[in-house]
Amino acid sequence: MALSRANRIRAVFFLHAISSGGIYSRVADIQHRLGADEQTLGLGFLGFPIGAILILFFGSRLVEVFGPKRIVSICLPLLPLGMIAVVAMPTVPLFFATFLLYGVIYALPNTAMNIEADRVEAATGQRVMNSCHGIWSIGQLLATLLGTLAEGAHLTPVVHMALLAIPLVPLALWIAFGLEPSPPRPHRSTVVRRLALPSLAVMVLVCFALGPTLLEGALRNWSVIYMRDSFAAPGWVDTLTLPVFLSAHALGRLSADRLVTRFGVVPTARTLTALALLGCAGVVLAPTLWMALAAFLLVGVGVCTSYPLTASAAARLGDRPSSENVASLSFATQTILLGAPALLGWVATNWGIRNAFAVLLPAVLLSIMLARYLAPRHA
C-alpha cells in the first residue's frame, strides 16, 4: 500500500507514540514492583529526561549528517523493545539507568520527525504539524487503552509490552524505510554547530511551552496516582484519566490546523492555554471523580497545541537550520524540566498529590502572557 509523504510522516508519529506511551498507564504497577514511594519513583523517572538531554546536545548535528530518514529507521523499531527492558527492571537504580538509555533512543527520532514534518509543510504549503501531533496523541491514547485492558486482564507490564512489540517492530521498519525525505528549509546560517544551544528567540519560545509541558508531564506521570489517592474507585477506573486526557488531546490537535488557519496562531494558543489553566485549577479543587475527569479533559484540550506550535515557530525562525532550532528548543525544555518529576514527587509526598498540580498554575498563567511570541516574525 502506497502512502503519501504527509501520511507516512503521520504514521511515524503514530508509531513513535504507541511504542512508548503504554508505560504511563502502568505507573501504579511499576511503583508496586519497585516498592517505591512517590518521591523515589519521581527520581526513577528522572532518567528519561537526562537521556533525552544527553542526545539533544548533538541531535541537530546528527540529523543534519545522517538525515531524518536514517535516524527514524534506526530508532523507531528500537522503541517498543526498549520499553520491555524499562518495565522489567526490578530496582529503582536499574529503572533509572534503563529509562536514561530509553530517553536517548526516544528523543533523537522525536527531533528528526518534527523536522521532517516541518519540511513537508514547506514543500507542500499545507499545515501538517498539528495533525501529526494529533496522530501522535491517538497513538498514545491507543497505547493507554491497551494498558487499561492489560491492567484489567492482570497482565504484568513486561508481558503487556512484549505483546505490543510483536506487531510494532516490523511495522516500524516498513514505515521508516519507505520515508521519502523532503528538502530542508532555507536559512541564513552556513554552519551547523556541534552543540545545539538555544538562542534568545528560542528561549522565549521555551518559556511559553514550559507551563503546558509541565502540566502535561505531571498529568501523564501522576494522574493515576492522583485518582487512586483522591477517590475510592477500582484500579481500572483510576487509569481512565489518561484515556480521557489523551482523547481530548488528540481531538484538539486534529482540529488545531483548521483553528490556526482561521483564527491565527496567537489567539488559538492563548485560548487553549486559558482552558489548560482552568483545567489545572479543576484538578486541584475537584470534589468528585467525575469532576476530576472533566478537569483532565480540559487540560487535554488546553495543552494540545503548545509543543507543535512552539516547534513550528522555532523551525521557522530562519536564523539557522531548522534542525538546530528544534533541537535546541527540545534541549532547553528538557533541561528545565529535568527536576520536574523529582520535585513534583516531593510535593506529592509531603504536601499531597493535589498540590503537585497547584504549583503549576503560575507557569501556565505565564504561558498565556507569552503566546504572542509564537507569531511568525514576518507578521
How would you briefly describe this protein structure?
This protein is mostly helical. The chain is 78% helix and 0% strand.
**Number of β-strand runs:** 0
The fraction of residues assigned to DSSP E strands is under 5%
Quickly name the level 1 CATH class: Mainly Alpha
Helix/strand-derived category reads mainly alpha
The CATH topology is given as Growth Hormone, Chain: A
Helix content range of the residues, please? Answer: over 70%
Report the mean per-residue pLDDT as an integer.
Answer: 84
Q: Which descriptor suits the 3D outline? A: globular
Q: How would you characterize the largest beta sheet?
A: none
**What is the CATH superfamily label?**
MFS general substrate transporter like domains
Order of helices and strands: HHHHHHHHHHHHHHHHHHH
The number of distinct structural domains comes to 1
Rg over CA atoms, rounded to whole Å, is 19 Å
CATH architecture: Up-down Bundle
Number of helices: 19
How does this model look, in words?
Helix content is 78%, strand content 0%. The chain has 379 residues and is mainly alpha-helical. The protein has a single domain, classed as MFS general substrate transporter like domains (Growth Hormone, Chain: A, Up-down Bundle). The protein is built from 19 helices and no strands. Helix 8 runs antiparallel to helix 12, helix 12 runs antiparallel to helix 13 and helix 15 packs across helix 16. The mean pLDDT is 84.
